[in-house]
Structures are given as C-alpha cells and as structure tokens.
Amino acid sequence: MIFHFFDTxxxxxxxxxxxxxxxxxxxxxxxxxxxxxETDSQLPVITYISPHELxxxxxxxxxxxxxxxTDDNIIKSIKVGLVNKEFISILPSxxxxxxxxxxxxxxxxxxxxxxxxxxxxxxxxxxENGTNTKNQxxxxxxxxxxxxxxxxxxxxxxxxxxxxVSEIDKMDNFSFLFDINGDYSxxxxxxxxxxxxxxxxxxxxxxxxxxxxxELDWLKEAFPPVPMHNNNCLxxxxxxxxxxxxxxxxxxRSNGSQVFNTIVENDKTPxxxxxxxxxxxxxxxxxxGGITYVATYYLATGAEKQxxxxxxxxxxxxxxxENNVLIAGNNSxxxxxxxxxxxxxxxTILITVPGNITCIEKLPNNNFIIGTDNTILVxxxxxxFLTSILPGKVAYRIRFxxxxxxxxxxxxxxIEKIKYPQMLPQNSYPLPDSIFDIHLFYNx
Length: 444
What we know:
7% of the residues lie in helices and 57% in strands.
C-alpha cells in the first residue's frame, strides 16, 4: 500500500498567495476603471469673451465670436455657429481642429442671410475632446433688413400666343423686359428667388423664369388632356401650388422639385386654392353642374380632410386668424363674403357684396379692398362694415404694397397707383396691350 502525504501548510500558503494576487488585480482594475470614468466625465470648459448677452447686430454685420476653451485632454474639434430660438442652425458653421488642451476662438462670423427676421438668436460653440462634448450658447439680438418695394412686374397680351413681360421700377419708369411664347391662365411671383411662374391653358403647363437673367429657369412639360388649367390656377406661399383642370393639384419648391400632390374625382375641377397653416383649401367646381365644395387637404400627405358644400365660385381665400379664413366668392351675380373654420368645417355667412367680385386684396387690420364689376369697396371685417370708396371705378386686379401703403388697380389697359388709406391718386400707367396681371417685387 502506498501512502501520499500532503503538506497542508504549503498548500494553504499557495492558496493565500493566489487570492492575494487576484485581489490586487481586481483592485487595480477597479481603480483604473474609476480613473477612466473620472477622466471621461471631465467636459471641456468654454468661457465667452464676446459677444455679450443680448448684444445687438444687424444683418450683413459680422459677429466677433471670442471664447477661451480649456480641457484636461486634447480638444479635438470646435464648431462655431448661429442658431435660432429652437436651436436650429441658420447659417453655415465654422469648424476648427485645435489638437491642444487650450484654445482661444476668435473669428468674425458673417450674418450674410438678408432674409433673417429681427429677433433673438444664439451664437453657439461646441467643443469635443473625443469622448465628451460641451455646448455653450450666448443670447444676442439681430435686426433684419427692412423689406423694400422694388418694382411692379406686368404681364400683358402680345401677338397671337405671346405674353409680354414689362416692369415699372420704383422711380415710375416703364420698360419692356422680354416676351414668352404661349398662352396664359395664371401667374405668381417669388421675390426671394426673383422668380416668375406662368401657366397656360393649352400650350404652357408651368414655366418658371429667373428675372435676374430674364431666362427660363425650369419648366414642367405640357401633357394631355387640354385645357390644362383654369384661370387663377396658381398660388404661392413659400411653395408654389398648381391646380389642373383635369383633377390634379401639385406643389413645387423654388427649384422645381415636387412637394405636394393629390387627385380629385373626374367630375370635379379644382380652381382657386390657398394654403392655411398645415392645410390646403381648394375650390372644387363641378364639370356637370352638380354640387360644389371647398375641400381641405393635409399639406404633409395630400390626403383629404373634409369638404364643405358651397353654392358659389371662390374668388380668393384669406387668413383672418389662426382658426378662420375669409372666403370671397360669387353666386348668381352677387358677391359673398363668408368666414370658414377648416378645423370644425363650419362656415358663417358674413355679408353680401353688390355685383360680382372681380378681385380682392387684404389690407392692414383685417380690412379688405374689393373690386366689383361696378365699384371698389373696403370691407372692415372687425366692424362687419362695407364701404364704397371709388364708386363707378372698375378693377379686375388689385395689389397692395404694405411697405409704402400704395394700392395698384388694374383695368384692361391701365394701371393706377393710389395712396392708402387716403385713397389719393399717385400715378397712372396706360399700356397699349390688355393686361393679364401684375406682381409686386421686393428686395426680400
């Protein structure tokens, strides 16, 4: 028999050593982890030197953005920019890669967007060290460029299937610009991008002209069936919306990319339309003499929300407040002014207008100037009062320049400028051709 003898004391020592060794390793891991966590939690420190809080600037100024940035690690990147009150970047940012633990930002940041509105903004500095990020904001106030009137653009009838484009500048000088081959059903304008939009009945679907170069910018090809568009088929508010006689409604950005589309049934034809908050309102006339509607669509999806049965043809829509629009229309030789709430689909009859409404334009303080087939009136919505201001005068287009308080009226071959609210004649511009429409252009 063989007996094996174990040295229990030696075995215990060995186990103690192993336990001690593992404990040391665990402690080192814990300490290293703790140190790493402590290091990772250290954010860069950003100290603004300029601008000062609520310091004022004007559009086209430069902001001196100056700040000290420190960290116990290397600062890998810095972003400097300008954001609005929703913290959305509004101008291209500047990126810096210091690769050091201390850095002083000192740049002249240009405010070169002439379309910025007056209001509060933030300068924004973002510093990253590869692990952690620090954002620092400084509140400032920017005063925007005042909107200024520049010219009246005139679209008139030339020779057969020809549209003449002319202008009256701010000094009242008249000049011919260029002509367009095609027919006419509607037009709109975009001062920001200096664009003119024109649609026709049989020859032009949608042509967009760059007024700076006086050349075609982009177009949408004509396609059957014809006629393609009803009169006054275009509406512009940030995007351009187009109604087609054959049941389509499209929306386009300034570069021609499509932003909206929807289709209505074959026996209806979409005519006048307008954007209201997140909705699009459309006058749906019947091709067969049936029921007419004001239809409401969601701008985001093109889906129809609802319809309101009407007994009139819409001349135009105007926003009154956040919940209501004014609808101007004609029914059996008389004008109608109604108020419509698209959220509840409730319409309120406001007032009857003597004669057919040929045109309507919004003035300050919820007043509206209305042209009919026998006079020009002003409707005060808040007082629910209608006043004839130019008896016997007929206009089929009216535009209002809010920057100089001038009203432009259009008769078949005559444009007149009238000072509002005094209604004093300022100037008249006779033309040899029949006028389709006029558009007011501004610096922004």
